[in-house]
Amino acid sequence: MRQRPHMPTVSHRRGVSGVAAPYRGGSASIAANDYWWYRVRARLLETALDPYVGEAGRVLDVGSADGPSVQWLRGRAVHATLDLDRRGLKRGEGVCGSALALPFASASFDVVGAFDVLEHCQPEATAVREFVRVLRPGGRLLLSVPAYQWAWTDFDEENGHHRRYTRQRAVAALEAGGLEVLRATYTFGSTLPLFALERLARRCMQAFRSGGPVEAADVVSLPTTPRVLDGLLYRLGRLDERILKRHDLPFGSSVVLAARKLG
Hints:
By secondary structure, this protein is of the alpha/beta class. The chain contains six helices and nine strands; from the N terminus they run ββαββββαβααβααβ. The chain has helices spanning about 35-50, 125-135, 155-160, 165-175, 190-210, 225-245, and strands at about 10-15, 20, 60, 80-85, 95, 110-115, 135-145, 180-185, 255-260. The strands form two sheets. The chain has a seven-stranded mixed sheet, sandwiched between helices. Strands 1-2 form a two-stranded antiparallel ribbon. The longest helix has 18 residues, at about 225-245. It is globular and about 50 Å long. The two termini are about 20 Å apart. The model is unreliable at about 1-25 (pLDDT under 50).
């Protein structure tokens, strides 16, 4: 496929604090791809989004460092991968590049998956425009983003996030890019009370901790989950999975969307 000149993503990211931090690295899945959240997310993404994949001939996985969560998309079509961090690419496979300037020809793909990518992109509209550009007419964008700006903590700063989303905010971003949203639902609803407690604890620790602004980490360290808690969180995720087969969730710590390119 024809490649466009590589352009790196913006060199700085900005959170709600307004403090810029340099881009430094990749997904936490690079170091912990068996973490409970990735295992649950894989099942939730497949349950919520697989009906919208259709007879895809070519699939692009943007942000492929999170590959453990999208194995369900592999093996069913020609699968291209892209990540800004070379550690997120398998040796001899994929393209190192930015979501803000995808190095692929227009109308190259039937499906573009961007799971927990858009919150890293600034300007947001540029990334959405690039996703749309490389989709064929009628092609589908499959997307997930973190939910709720009230949940913003130093963990978001360390991850290099620019924003968190509500379902309405995510739908508006895709519709502004010329997409028709086919499904928009929250996920991780069953674990939301525990998520909220964890975020509250983080904010309390931040309030008592001295020091300057939090910079983006190279690879973020994930919270340790004892084996019993890991099992509980996984089982709660399975409850979400059963609900998502028939209904959208009205709340949760992530937003998942499927959209179609018009024209």
